[in-house]
Amino acid sequence: MKFSLIPFSLLLASGAAFAPVQQQRHPRHSALSMAETLEAPPMAPLTQWGDKISNIRQLQQAMRQTPLPEFAPEVSAQDLGIAGDAAAQLQYFQENAMELKKKMQLHGALVFRDFELMKSQDGFQQFYQAVGMKTCLDPLHSVSARPTVDGQKNSPVYEAVNKESRKNFFIGMHNEFVGTRAPRAAAFVCFKAAETGGEFIIADGRRMFCDLDADLVEELYNREIRYSVMELPFFGWID
């Protein structure tokens, strides 16, 4: 997991990111010291590319004609009547884990607002345990690009990449994919808002696929072109 934005958002790629509902446990005690007792999380799962698509142009055309669901709908603690009550919020996630999972699979992402629970690392971990999310090592673990929030080696909550050497790099839209490993879902949260800027942008990959030029999609897919790193080192003028 890593954090980055003030409203909490959860991006989903596959149901495999979640533990089966019957295996969930919902402790009522404070979550951490959890980082102190956790064993090292497992490696991020291997990337699953899926079956070869025989006609990518035809698939794109079919998707363009298919109505797509709303992307990233908001879930507000205010609207649910549980704002300011972290215990009630945790109970909400425990009781609605399967419904939230289905919504994430349908919509691609959910944005949670006004939740006190996720304003601390303890509460953030309680949240994703309540909905049955599985933790894994950061795909960038091998290059130590991101420190953990609390500095604990086995903590499952990572900071964004804040290295000084990367301050002028523009990080383009990307999946949480590094080399051969790709988490099936990711949760992002901000414990301290930026003084200026700090916006966190998410995009609907289905709509991006539909919007791309058909010739380009066909060329990229048939030549099996995939990005390995999406950062451009010549954007110093942004500052």
Task: Describe the protein in words.
- With 239 residues, the protein is α+β, with helices and mostly antiparallel strands.
- It has eight helices and six strands, in the order βααβαααβαββααβ.
- The strands form two sheets. The protein has a four-stranded mixed sheet.
Overall average pLDDT: 80
Cα-based radius of gyration, to the nearest Å:
19 Å
Quaternary state reads single chain
Any idea what the shape is? Answer: globular
Distance between the termini: 28 Å
Biggest pleated sheet: 4 strands, mixed
Q: What's the number of helices?
A: 8
Helix-strand string: EHHEHHHEHEEHHE
What is the structural class?
A: alpha+beta
What is the percentage of strand-forming residues?
Answer: 5-15%
Percent of residues in helices: 25-40%
Lateral arrangement of strands in the main beta sheet: 2-3-1-5
The parts where pLDDT drops under 50 for at least 5 residues are 1-7, 20-36
Could you give the count of β-strands? 6
